[in-house]
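Notebook p. 47: complex prediction with alpha-D-ribofuranose.
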Amino acid sequence: MKVVGSINMDVVVEVERAPEAGETVLGSDYRLHPGGKGANQAVAAARLGAAVEMIGCLGRDAYGDTLYGTLRGEGLILDNLQRVTQPTGAAFITVDQDGQNRIVVSPGANAVLTSARLPSDLERTDWLLMQLEVPLDTVRMAASRVRNGGGRVVLNAAPATVLPAELLEALDYLVVNETEAGELLGGPAPADFEQALQAAERLRGADSTTIVTLGDRGAVWAAPAGSGQVEAYTVAVVDTTACGDSFVGTLVWALSENEPLEQAMKLANAAGALTATRAGAQPSLPDLNELRRFASI
Ligand code: RIB
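Predicted complex, structure tokens below:
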């Protein structure tokens, strides 16, 4: 599996409540955690046993050195991870008393992951997983190259933006949360399973599958072979950061292990729930033993 995506240092502050415009609130001491949607999803899959290559950019700075070390420690293949002059990507995150987060990303090095930096052997990829914290043109080009090479392409369209038709046509799986589904369709976020299923059907290509996650209400899928849903787990939420990344990384790992879609959805749903019970992005991603115990699968 290859992940083309972002790598960030997360700067996290716990607050009683997030500030309004023009307001200052006092928070906790800040903590630094390895993050970035691309890296989180790559680590999620690697902790479950997938062989994962991370393709991305880090700055030649202290955060870049730290993140290179944590990704190497997770066993990721880093042959096409490039060090660039821009600062390493950073995300500024508040987590409120209910565990809900608000995130501002400063892309830095992630913004120079141009299509020219994609590896020459990208066509030889079985599963490609991407998100939208790197340039859209790079995502479009990578999707088309892997598709032409016969590989499967998964896009987690986060953060949401208008997607070119050529990119949508190259996808096997599109994964979005309810907010992103609303943004892609130019309407309100689906509020329940029924609306989410309708959104998934509208976002789906003729041969592709769309998954809409609904946070603490579960997730739905619409696929060529039919649709379905998984109910959420009830857990004590500490921090929802990277729940979506945990879901997506687990989903693609399970699919790459030839699990049927419904089983892959159950495992992804369980991984997302476990991630909500711990603080931070990558520190909260489960390993295979924990996931299997929790999901009873
Ligand atoms: O999805 C969570 C991630 O979003 C954080 O780790 C942060 O880096 C941003 O990319």
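Notes: The chain has a mean pLDDT of 97. The CA atoms of residues 179 and 274 lie 21 Å apart.
Next step: compare against the earlier run before touching the bench.
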